[in-house]
Fold:
Amino acid sequence: MSPLLEASFPLKMLTAIKQAYQYKILNKTCELDWERQGEILCHTICQQNQSPPAYILVKMTQEEKRIDKLARSISEVGSVMMAKDIAG
Structure:
């Protein structure tokens, strides 16, 4: 660590911040694993409700919009899988 940081903050606080950051990364990694296993989390729902930016959405045809909506779905089978393959 830089001498300036060590002089400004107590060492105990800096170690607590470092541990919190490491825990956050570990937790986000676990969340992504749970998502891949089929667990529905807040992040999953928010991602599903998103759409492309407005300037792209205006240029999309109805079929492209339908495929984009399907590609954001949680499922991995049937028409959703085909839409995800098409969307990339």
Q: What stands out?
A: The chain has two domains: 1-39, 51-88. The longest helix spans residues 11-36. The chain has a mean pLDDT of 82.
